[in-house]
Amino acid sequence: MNKPGSVLRAAGAFPKWALVALVTAALVLVWWWRSPAADQALTATVTRGELVATLTSSGTLKPIQSITYRSPIPGRDIEIRELAAEGSKVNEGDLLVRLDTTDLEVELARIRQELRQAQLDLQVAEGEWDEAGAEVKAVTEGEGALTVEEARTTLMRAEKKAERLREEYASLRPLLDKGFITRDELARTSDQLEQAEDELSLARKRTDIVVQLSHPREQKRAALQLAQKASQLGHVRARVQETELRHNTLARLIDLCTIKARGSGMVVYEEFLNANPRRKLRVGDRVFAAQGIVTIPEVNRMLVEASVSEAQVHRVGAGQAAVVRVEAFPDLRLTGRVTRVGALASASAARPFDDKRFDLIITLDPTDAELRPEMTIRADVIVGSRKDVLLVPVTALFNKDGRHVVYLNGFSGPEARQVEVGESNDRLAEVTSGLQEGDRVALTEPGAPAQTPARGNALQPR
Asked: Rounded CA gap, 249 and 101, in Å?
């Protein structure tokens, strides 16, 4: 058995540097032992990689194109007989609405009868107009012209006969004085001349009456009758055309009462304006032409209506890519591009002194997802990227006196360190100074209740 004095001598011979190393190791072991295992989940390592900077905004889905279908019948209400199911998807040519056409078909039958009668009246009017035209031709070129020609011919014959008898009477008078003829013979020739003169006078009067009175009057009468028949024909033709137009228009309206989709989309019923309280339209309701029946938003081509704050508007512009998440479909990721940034800022009427915001429109790429208008979304607009930069989770950054700080795990506990921050997204931030790769930073502020980071707070670059 060793004596106490020998033990003390042995300890005194132990080197001092070994004692220091032994004590340091013991302190490290005690610090490690006192640090809970859960602290590892509340820290992150500073890494180097690529950062995709995004600007996040919330908004709603809107269709790029939306078509509202109404009753095609103006000036009257009409009953809905059939409706496509609300919420169902339709393609071009699918049935949307069928309206009641009973009254229209009764009216169409009546107009069809009017059209047949008008067409018969047109045939009669055309026949009378042809007869009037033939009468004008007869007066101008036929019997009327022949009557004038006969009167003129008769006048010419009477003139020639009277002229011949004058010459004959003039040649016989000297012969009576010489005794070659008797007085009775000369008297007979004189009687013939007198009769010829009377016939000539009558022929002149008859010709004047025919040429100057009868024939012009017959021409005017025939022309007037032709004009009257032409007017009647034009009126009947106009009535036929008007009746045909009414017939064709009503027939087309009856066809339009079967309303079919002009493009693909989703069926959305409009409200029934005559109901109190308001409700959606249904079969049996009566609608006017101004009343929308169904609206078909084109859900395969949608856009996002969102907004961006005044402080961030300089970061976004047309053409930037965006990733859109839909609240109704957590696992769905849609892509699109910014198509418009508002030119004027706007503020809430209820909070006029809040931050002003600019409209942000993102057009989505075509998708087969079951999207609906007015769905809530979150859009991440890619505003830039950084390669080979130091990255920390955004949950590791804290604001202290207007400065960004992180808390490093030091030997004596968390140590605050000021850092400079560059670009960021919803998970990671770029650190331009104050840290080195491999540093461990806390994800909670000292003194705050410890909470395990959410699964979405990834600690690696995107």
From this structure: 14
338 neighbors 320 (Cβ within 8 angstroms):
yes
The C-alpha atoms of residue 281 and residue 272 are separated, in whole angstroms, by: 5
pLDDT at 41 over 80: no
* Phi, psi at 296, each rounded to 5°: -115, 95
DSSP state for residue 355 in the 8-state scheme: P
Distance CA 135, CA 129 (A): 10
Q: Are 421 and 412 in contact (CB under 8 A)?
A: no
**Using N-to-C axis directions, what is the helix angle for 143-178 and 183-208, rounded to 10°?**
160
DSSP per-residue string spanning 418-460: E-EEEEE-SSEEEEEES--TT-EEESS-TTSPP-PPPTT--SS
From CA 370, how far away is CA 453, in angstroms rounded?
32
SS3 117: helix
Cβ atoms of 393 and 453 within 8 Å: the answer is yes
- Residues 375, 61 contacting (CB under 8 angstroms): yes
Q: Per-residue pLDDT for 378 more than 70? A: yes
Q: What backbone torsions phi and psi does residue 303 show, to the nearest 5 degrees? A: -135, 165
What is the C-alpha separation between 174 and 171, in angstroms, rounded? 7
Q: What average pLDDT does this structure show over 330-353?
A: 83
The single-letter DSSP state of residue 394 is: G
pLDDT band at 170 (very low <50, low <70, confident <90, very high): confident
Give 174 or 391, the one with higher predicted confidence: 391
Is the pTM of the predicted complex or chain greater than 0.85?
Answer: no
The conformation of residue 1, written as its DSSP 8-state character, comes to -
Shortest CA distance to 372 belongs to which of 337, 340, 329?
329
The pLDDT tens digits of the residues spanning 51-84 come to: 888 888 999 999 988 899 999 998 889 999 999 9
Residue 358 near residue 313, CB atoms below 8 Å: yes
Closest CA to 74 of 267, 288, 338, 366: 288
Q: Is 367 exposed, middle or buried (0-12, 13-18, 19+ CB in 10 A)?
A: middle
Burial annotation 296-318 (CB, 10 A radius, 16+ → b, else e): bbbbbbbbbebbbeeebbebbee
Output the pLDDT for position 12.
47
Phi then psi for residue 255, to 5 deg, are -65, -40
